[in-house]
Amino acid sequence: MAAKKANDEVKLSDELTKIVDDLVSSSKSNGSISEDDIQVAIRDVDVNDDELSDLYDSLRVKGVEITTASEATVSFAIEDDAVEDDFSSDDDLDDSSDFEDEDDEDFDAVNEAREVKEALRSVSKAKVSKPKRSSRARARRSDTTTVMLTGDPVRMYLKEIGKVDLLTASEEVHLAMKIEAGTAASQKLEDFEDGLIELNRAEQRRLMRIESVGLDAKQQLISANLRLVVSIAKRYVGRGMLFLDLIQEGNLGLIRAVEKFDYTKGFKFSTYATWWIRQ
After folding, report:
1. Phi, psi for residue 92 in degrees, rounded to 5
2. Which stretches are tagged as biased composition: Basic residues (predicted)?
Protein backbone atom coordinates (compact mmCIF):
# COMPACT_ATOMS: atom_id res chain seq x y z
CA MET A 1 0.00 0.00 0.00
CA ALA A 2 1.19 3.50 -0.77
CA ALA A 3 2.19 5.77 2.08
CA LYS A 4 1.87 9.56 2.46
CA LYS A 5 4.66 11.97 3.23
CA ALA A 6 4.35 14.74 5.80
CA ASN A 7 3.58 17.31 3.10
CA ASP A 8 0.62 15.19 1.94
CA GLU A 9 2.41 14.07 -1.20
CA VAL A 10 1.43 10.49 -1.90
CA LYS A 11 4.17 7.87 -2.13
CA LEU A 12 3.36 5.34 -4.85
CA SER A 13 5.07 2.31 -6.28
CA ASP A 14 7.42 2.96 -9.21
CA GLU A 15 4.85 1.51 -11.62
CA LEU A 16 2.04 3.73 -10.37
CA THR A 17 4.34 6.75 -10.18
CA LYS A 18 5.09 6.39 -13.89
CA ILE A 19 1.36 6.13 -14.62
CA VAL A 20 0.69 9.29 -12.60
CA ASP A 21 3.48 11.14 -14.41
CA ASP A 22 2.01 10.13 -17.78
CA LEU A 23 -1.45 11.25 -16.69
CA VAL A 24 -0.09 14.57 -15.43
CA SER A 25 1.59 15.14 -18.80
CA SER A 26 -1.66 14.29 -20.56
CA SER A 27 -3.61 16.72 -18.37
CA LYS A 28 -1.18 19.52 -19.22
CA SER A 29 -1.73 18.88 -22.92
CA ASN A 30 -5.52 18.47 -22.76
CA GLY A 31 -6.43 20.63 -19.79
CA SER A 32 -7.80 17.67 -17.83
CA ILE A 33 -8.09 13.89 -17.83
CA SER A 34 -11.17 11.69 -17.70
CA GLU A 35 -11.97 8.65 -15.61
CA ASP A 36 -11.58 6.60 -18.77
CA ASP A 37 -8.02 7.87 -19.16
CA ILE A 38 -7.22 6.62 -15.67
CA GLN A 39 -8.94 3.27 -16.17
CA VAL A 40 -7.08 2.69 -19.43
CA ALA A 41 -3.78 3.62 -17.79
CA ILE A 42 -4.19 1.06 -14.97
CA ARG A 43 -5.95 -1.71 -16.89
CA ASP A 44 -2.84 -3.93 -16.99
CA VAL A 45 -1.79 -3.16 -13.41
CA ASP A 46 -2.90 -5.09 -10.34
CA VAL A 47 -4.22 -2.21 -8.22
CA ASN A 48 -5.96 -2.72 -4.91
CA ASP A 49 -8.51 -0.42 -3.34
CA ASP A 50 -6.03 1.56 -1.24
CA GLU A 51 -3.60 2.00 -4.11
CA LEU A 52 -6.38 3.27 -6.34
CA SER A 53 -7.35 5.80 -3.69
CA ASP A 54 -3.73 6.90 -3.34
CA LEU A 55 -3.41 7.26 -7.11
CA TYR A 56 -6.36 9.65 -7.17
CA ASP A 57 -4.92 11.49 -4.16
CA SER A 58 -1.61 11.89 -5.98
CA LEU A 59 -3.32 13.31 -9.05
CA ARG A 60 -5.27 15.71 -6.87
CA VAL A 61 -2.13 16.88 -5.06
CA LYS A 62 -0.52 17.58 -8.43
CA GLY A 63 -3.48 19.73 -9.41
CA VAL A 64 -4.87 17.42 -12.09
CA GLU A 65 -8.50 18.03 -13.02
CA ILE A 66 -10.44 14.78 -13.41
CA THR A 67 -13.73 14.83 -15.29
CA THR A 68 -16.12 12.33 -13.76
CA ALA A 69 -18.29 9.84 -15.59
CA SER A 70 -21.41 11.68 -14.48
CA GLU A 71 -20.12 14.78 -16.24
CA ALA A 72 -18.93 13.10 -19.40
CA THR A 73 -20.30 9.68 -20.18
CA VAL A 74 -23.18 8.67 -17.96
CA SER A 75 -26.07 9.94 -20.06
CA PHE A 76 -27.35 7.64 -22.76
CA ALA A 77 -30.25 7.50 -25.21
CA ILE A 78 -32.78 4.73 -24.85
CA GLU A 79 -32.77 4.32 -28.62
CA ASP A 80 -28.96 3.95 -28.78
CA ASP A 81 -27.83 1.61 -31.56
CA ALA A 82 -25.90 -0.59 -29.13
CA VAL A 83 -29.17 -1.45 -27.41
CA GLU A 84 -31.54 -1.32 -30.37
CA ASP A 85 -29.43 -3.77 -32.42
CA ASP A 86 -30.34 -6.52 -29.93
CA PHE A 87 -33.72 -5.34 -28.70
CA SER A 88 -35.85 -3.50 -31.29
CA SER A 89 -38.71 -1.36 -30.00
CA ASP A 90 -41.08 -3.72 -31.88
CA ASP A 91 -39.74 -6.87 -30.24
CA ASP A 92 -41.89 -9.01 -27.96
CA LEU A 93 -39.82 -11.46 -25.98
CA ASP A 94 -42.81 -13.78 -25.65
CA ASP A 95 -43.40 -14.08 -29.43
CA SER A 96 -40.73 -16.31 -30.91
CA SER A 97 -42.19 -15.94 -34.41
CA ASP A 98 -40.81 -12.42 -34.55
CA PHE A 99 -37.31 -13.86 -34.55
CA GLU A 100 -37.60 -16.60 -37.16
CA ASP A 101 -35.33 -14.76 -39.58
CA GLU A 102 -32.73 -13.71 -37.03
CA ASP A 103 -29.32 -15.32 -36.80
CA ASP A 104 -28.07 -17.55 -33.98
CA GLU A 105 -26.72 -14.67 -31.99
CA ASP A 106 -30.12 -12.97 -31.94
CA PHE A 107 -31.73 -16.23 -30.79
CA ASP A 108 -29.13 -16.47 -28.01
CA ALA A 109 -30.02 -12.99 -26.84
CA VAL A 110 -33.73 -13.79 -26.78
CA ASN A 111 -33.21 -17.11 -25.00
CA GLU A 112 -30.99 -15.38 -22.48
CA ALA A 113 -33.68 -12.81 -21.81
CA ARG A 114 -36.18 -15.60 -21.19
CA GLU A 115 -33.83 -17.60 -18.99
CA VAL A 116 -33.16 -14.55 -16.87
CA LYS A 117 -36.84 -13.93 -16.52
CA GLU A 118 -35.99 -12.68 -13.10
CA ALA A 119 -33.60 -10.19 -14.66
CA LEU A 120 -34.21 -6.58 -15.54
CA ARG A 121 -37.25 -5.59 -13.47
CA SER A 122 -38.06 -1.90 -13.20
CA VAL A 123 -35.60 -0.40 -10.77
CA SER A 124 -38.41 1.60 -9.21
CA LYS A 125 -39.85 -1.65 -7.83
CA ALA A 126 -36.54 -3.08 -6.62
CA LYS A 127 -35.93 -2.73 -2.91
CA VAL A 128 -33.16 -3.45 -0.47
CA SER A 129 -34.33 -6.24 1.82
CA LYS A 130 -34.13 -5.53 5.50
CA PRO A 131 -31.93 -8.18 7.11
CA LYS A 132 -33.50 -10.59 9.55
CA ARG A 133 -32.24 -10.15 13.07
CA SER A 134 -30.66 -13.59 13.03
CA SER A 135 -28.60 -12.90 9.92
CA ARG A 136 -27.57 -9.25 9.88
CA ALA A 137 -23.90 -9.90 9.22
CA ARG A 138 -24.63 -12.19 6.28
CA ALA A 139 -27.15 -9.70 4.92
CA ARG A 140 -24.66 -6.85 5.01
CA ARG A 141 -22.16 -8.90 3.06
CA SER A 142 -24.63 -10.43 0.64
CA ASP A 143 -25.07 -9.07 -2.86
CA THR A 144 -28.73 -10.12 -2.72
CA THR A 145 -29.54 -7.31 -0.27
CA THR A 146 -29.37 -4.83 -3.12
CA VAL A 147 -30.86 -4.24 -6.53
CA MET A 148 -30.52 -7.15 -8.92
CA LEU A 149 -31.99 -7.20 -12.38
CA THR A 150 -35.20 -9.19 -12.46
CA GLY A 151 -38.05 -9.32 -14.93
CA ASP A 152 -38.77 -6.88 -17.76
CA PRO A 153 -37.04 -6.31 -21.12
CA VAL A 154 -33.84 -4.35 -21.41
CA ARG A 155 -35.62 -1.43 -23.01
CA MET A 156 -37.95 -0.98 -20.03
CA TYR A 157 -35.04 -1.28 -17.62
CA LEU A 158 -33.13 1.46 -19.43
CA LYS A 159 -36.21 3.66 -19.48
CA GLU A 160 -36.74 3.26 -15.74
CA ILE A 161 -33.16 3.91 -14.65
CA GLY A 162 -33.11 6.94 -16.91
CA LYS A 163 -35.80 8.48 -14.70
CA VAL A 164 -33.56 8.43 -11.62
CA ASP A 165 -31.82 11.76 -11.02
CA LEU A 166 -28.06 11.84 -10.77
CA LEU A 167 -26.62 12.81 -7.41
CA THR A 168 -24.49 15.80 -6.57
CA ALA A 169 -21.25 15.28 -4.66
CA SER A 170 -22.85 16.58 -1.46
CA GLU A 171 -25.82 14.22 -1.87
CA GLU A 172 -23.43 11.29 -2.31
CA VAL A 173 -21.65 12.23 0.92
CA HIS A 174 -24.99 12.58 2.74
CA LEU A 175 -26.07 9.10 1.62
CA ALA A 176 -22.66 7.62 2.43
CA MET A 177 -22.90 8.99 5.97
CA LYS A 178 -26.32 7.37 6.38
CA ILE A 179 -24.95 4.07 5.09
CA GLU A 180 -22.05 4.30 7.53
CA ALA A 181 -24.39 5.01 10.44
CA GLY A 182 -26.70 2.19 9.37
CA THR A 183 -23.82 -0.27 9.23
CA ALA A 184 -22.68 0.75 12.71
CA ALA A 185 -26.22 0.38 14.05
CA SER A 186 -26.55 -3.05 12.45
CA GLN A 187 -23.30 -4.13 14.10
CA LYS A 188 -24.54 -3.03 17.52
CA LEU A 189 -27.79 -4.92 17.05
CA GLU A 190 -25.84 -8.01 16.06
CA ASP A 191 -23.64 -7.66 19.15
CA PHE A 192 -26.80 -7.39 21.26
CA GLU A 193 -28.21 -10.57 19.71
CA ASP A 194 -24.93 -12.35 20.43
CA GLY A 195 -25.09 -11.26 24.07
CA LEU A 196 -22.02 -9.03 23.82
CA ILE A 197 -23.79 -5.81 24.83
CA GLU A 198 -27.03 -4.81 26.56
CA LEU A 199 -29.68 -2.64 24.94
CA ASN A 200 -33.03 -1.51 26.28
CA ARG A 201 -36.09 -1.48 24.04
CA ALA A 202 -35.78 2.22 23.23
CA GLU A 203 -32.16 1.79 22.15
CA GLN A 204 -33.08 -1.21 20.02
CA ARG A 205 -35.84 0.71 18.26
CA ARG A 206 -33.53 3.67 17.66
CA LEU A 207 -30.81 1.47 16.17
CA MET A 208 -33.32 -0.36 13.99
CA ARG A 209 -34.53 2.96 12.59
CA ILE A 210 -30.96 4.02 11.83
CA GLU A 211 -30.31 0.66 10.21
CA SER A 212 -33.40 1.05 8.02
CA VAL A 213 -32.36 4.56 6.95
CA GLY A 214 -28.93 3.19 6.03
CA LEU A 215 -30.44 0.48 3.85
CA ASP A 216 -32.63 3.03 2.08
CA ALA A 217 -29.58 5.23 1.48
CA LYS A 218 -27.70 2.28 0.04
CA GLN A 219 -30.58 1.63 -2.35
CA GLN A 220 -30.64 5.28 -3.43
CA LEU A 221 -26.91 5.36 -4.13
CA ILE A 222 -27.14 2.19 -6.20
CA SER A 223 -30.21 3.32 -8.13
CA ALA A 224 -28.69 6.68 -9.00
CA ASN A 225 -25.65 4.97 -10.53
CA LEU A 226 -27.24 2.11 -12.49
CA ARG A 227 -26.97 4.15 -15.68
CA LEU A 228 -23.21 4.35 -15.10
CA VAL A 229 -23.15 0.55 -15.28
CA VAL A 230 -25.05 0.63 -18.58
CA SER A 231 -22.77 3.32 -19.98
CA ILE A 232 -19.71 1.19 -19.24
CA ALA A 233 -21.34 -2.11 -20.26
CA LYS A 234 -22.25 -0.80 -23.72
CA ARG A 235 -18.55 -0.34 -24.49
CA TYR A 236 -18.00 -4.09 -24.13
CA VAL A 237 -20.92 -5.29 -26.28
CA GLY A 238 -19.70 -7.70 -28.95
CA ARG A 239 -16.72 -8.97 -26.98
CA GLY A 240 -18.16 -12.38 -26.16
CA MET A 241 -20.73 -11.51 -23.48
CA LEU A 242 -24.41 -10.66 -23.85
CA PHE A 243 -25.57 -7.22 -22.84
CA LEU A 244 -27.62 -8.70 -19.99
CA ASP A 245 -24.56 -10.46 -18.58
CA LEU A 246 -22.49 -7.29 -18.82
CA ILE A 247 -25.10 -5.34 -16.89
CA GLN A 248 -25.40 -8.07 -14.25
CA GLU A 249 -21.63 -8.20 -13.74
CA GLY A 250 -21.39 -4.42 -13.71
CA ASN A 251 -24.09 -4.19 -11.06
CA LEU A 252 -22.10 -6.54 -8.84
CA GLY A 253 -19.19 -4.13 -9.16
CA LEU A 254 -21.48 -1.22 -8.32
CA ILE A 255 -22.65 -3.04 -5.19
CA ARG A 256 -19.03 -3.57 -4.12
CA ALA A 257 -18.34 0.11 -4.69
CA VAL A 258 -21.28 1.16 -2.51
CA GLU A 259 -20.12 -1.16 0.26
CA LYS A 260 -16.53 0.09 0.16
CA PHE A 261 -16.97 3.78 -0.70
CA ASP A 262 -15.11 6.08 1.70
CA TYR A 263 -16.59 9.55 1.36
CA THR A 264 -13.78 11.06 3.44
CA LYS A 265 -11.37 10.59 0.53
CA GLY A 266 -12.97 13.52 -1.26
CA PHE A 267 -13.65 12.14 -4.75
CA LYS A 268 -17.05 11.55 -6.34
CA PHE A 269 -18.65 8.16 -6.00
CA SER A 270 -18.83 7.69 -9.78
CA THR A 271 -15.06 8.12 -9.97
CA TYR A 272 -14.60 5.35 -7.41
CA ALA A 273 -17.39 3.14 -8.76
CA THR A 274 -16.04 3.14 -12.33
CA TRP A 275 -13.05 1.07 -11.24
CA TRP A 276 -15.17 -1.49 -9.41
CA ILE A 277 -17.68 -1.78 -12.24
CA ARG A 278 -14.92 -2.50 -14.75
CA GLN A 279 -13.62 -5.35 -12.61
Report:
1. -130, 115
2. 127-139
